Amino acid sequence: MDFDLKKLLRPHILGIKPYSSARDEYSGKIGVFLDANENPYGALTGESFNRYPDPYQADIKERLADIKGVKPSQIFLGNGSDEAIDLLMRAFCTPGKDNIILLPPTYGMYEVSASINDVEIKKVPLTEDFQLKPDEILNAVDANSKVIFICSPNNPSGNKMDRNQIRQILSEFNGLVVVDEAYIDFSDEPSFTTELDKFPNLLVMQTFSKAWGLANLRIGMAYASEEIIRILNLIKPPYNISGLTQQKVLDSLQKAEKIHDLVHQVFEEKVFLENKLSQFVFVKKIYPSHANFLLVKMKKARDVYEFLINQMIILRDRSKVELCEDCLRISLGTRVENNALLEALNTYQSNRL
Ligand SMILES: *Cc1c(COP(=O)(O)O)cnc(C)c1O
Prior knowledge:
alpha/beta; Aspartate Aminotransferase, domain 2; Aspartate Aminotransferase, domain 1; 11 strands; binds pyridoxal-5'-phosphate; histidine biosynthesis
């Protein structure tokens, strides 16, 4: 492998001087702060949101580094993983020239973000059972291919990808390989963060939106070499994670060990729902899932979807997505929510079939 970060980046990026925020120039927490044009009296509600937050989220990164076994300087935090995806496009892909490689069916934001940035998309579909085709992926690479996005466990199919095939792509592609682990907490797989030292072209994305239950706060993580993280920090908006979010995330990290209970509860709901769903005559296949959702193939999926919408039960219609024909994606709810779904499907089965 011949990975050269400087060559991979858009040429102008290395010359950028970051915005130097007021809080960059003096990092102490105590002082008379007359540098950032803030309101010194506090908010109208009496809450103390009047000061700008830490632009580099040092407290969170210190905790996360501990938990994940990486250095704080190997962590980037974004306004959702979606911000990291967008920054990667902007750092590496020259609009109208470079391309990224996507492996459908997969998470929709990679394509949206590429399109917004006028970055060409090459697609190499997964196999019928949603695994990678490493040789075809590597064959699709050309001189302008900058990033390959691998989602594992994959959304919307729920499976984890073969680790050796991911490693093969990492070692044979000279560009950046993103392994999106949004659902890793639900899986028994070790995270690819454990392989960051082996692969300088690896970037692992995770998020607080799923297992951590903080989707509303908008915060996602990227783990990579210090060099790559430095670039993301260079081009991000200075105060991209609000102070309120930072506080709530820190509170959650204090209780990090409880995540296992939550994941176990989700696992039990998965077994419960899989078992019940498999009894409906219109359900053709439930794909094995290492995430907190099930991809389910059924007769007349669109019909089922619309019936449920009328009952105010909303699933994700993936029936028009490549390799997911006739499939709906079902997020695992609480037992009460899952029972509401099952009851509605019972009604569907007795009335519509
Ligand atoms: C939900 C999800 C994310 C999370 O995005 P956030 O912006 O962090 O909420 C990232 N990747 C995949 C594959 C997802 O399904």
